[in-house]
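Lecture 7 notes: from sequence to structure.

We start with a single chain of 140 residues. Read the sequence below before looking at the structure.
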Amino acid sequence: MAKGTSTAVGRPKSFFIAVAIIVVWAITGPFFHFSDTWQLIINTGTTIVTFLMVFLIQNTQNRDSKALHLKLDELLRANRAARNTLVDLENMSDTELQELQDEFSRLREIACEEVSERAARRRREHVDKHTSEALRSRRR
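Now the structure, written as tokens:
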């Protein structure tokens, strides 16, 4: 029921219906002399709809999140180079997740150091090349 409702409510037609309800409510204001009851109708209606939509949105996000995790788990499982310990990661404890995050942070630091070393080596090679070319041109 939640899936069908979220699909129906997510369509442009539903938005226009909601706008039409607000317009009809606003037009009827003068007929009801903008009374407290007239205001209470829209306040109560929007509160109820908002309350229900929160649960509908949460349900939709939970389904999407679960599907995404399952797809990622399948990719990890299918890739021989990937660590299968990362499958079902969302069910790890906070401590386990923190340990894994620390490990990835260390890997990132190592990778950044390697990139910096390669860049420095390229700069030295570039300087050496131009220096040797300058020396050769002076000798001529």
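The chain has a mean pLDDT of 89. Keep this in mind for problem set 3.
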